[in-house]
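Note to self: keep these together.
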Amino acid sequence: MSDRLAALSREITACGACKRLVRCREAAGDDPPKRFLDDDYWLKPVPGFGDPAARLLVVGLAPAAHGANRTGRMFTGDRSGDWLYAALHRAGFANQPTSKHAGDGLVLTGAYVTNIVRCAPPDNQPTPKERDRCIAFFHKELALLPNVRAIVALGGFAWDGVLRAFAAHVPKPKPAFGHGAKVVLGAHTMFASYHVSQQNTFTRRLTEPMLDAVFAAASAMLQPDHQA
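Structure:
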């Protein structure tokens, strides 16, 4: 199964379907902040990262222009990743609380991290067409992660993307996004959190206890004695 995920990763990184996103991701490498002037940017679509046997799937919006678009690994090298992987470490899914670059030794156990869109979009806003093209990769990832039962959606865009991927199982009326929201999608259960972006963490719209509570709920759902 990990070999098939590796093949999918190669397919993702070779994609150039969305010309606007290609221009955006490459422009970030042409004009990096001073602190990254000496870095070699990834500048390709970013594949998912984690444990092929994962039971927890974490879904975000898209790579950050100077985060995963630079390092080549999901939520790595920026403040959002600092928050996410610290929370996964506290929840027992990561061997360390930091994620600075792709070779820093970070290992996820029981968890896999991905995004709905794989390239850094202008102003963090993919178009509906870009989302719909890219969500095909998300469908393929889901098929190659058969043990996943709990999904944590970081932000409304990820929440909506997962609902689109599970369209046949979405209850009516369509569940609205909100921090702490929960919805059962067939054999999967999705939990919502505000995104770990600085816009939310600096303003304390999202705090560490709030994020930890979401992962605690997802972890509890994965326990053998859990009852819906």
